[in-house]
Design brief:
single chain; alpha+beta; Vcp-like ATPase, Chain A, domain 2; two-stranded antiparallel ribbon; 40% helix
Amino acid sequence: MYIYIYIYTNIGVLHAALQPLCCLTVGDLVTVQHGGGTYDMTVLQVEPSQPSNAVMLIDTDIQVEIAPSTAEEEALLQRERDRERERAAAREQVVYV
């Protein structure tokens, strides 16, 4: 998750990745190279919504929102499940004095 926040705060990195593109459609994969790593970002939504699910980038100011990767979301869900199991196990433990 750190890398997404870091890339998002460094708008120049995103600008460099989007500069050669003339349009984006839902499902497009944008590759961002930063800090020695390569990160693939999938376009999940474009606005304003159109039947083509596409937006033109030429002479356009864009606003970008970055969501966690599916791997990061799964890791967060797994951590939450583990915590819930631990809480349930702790509630089941009975201590007799």
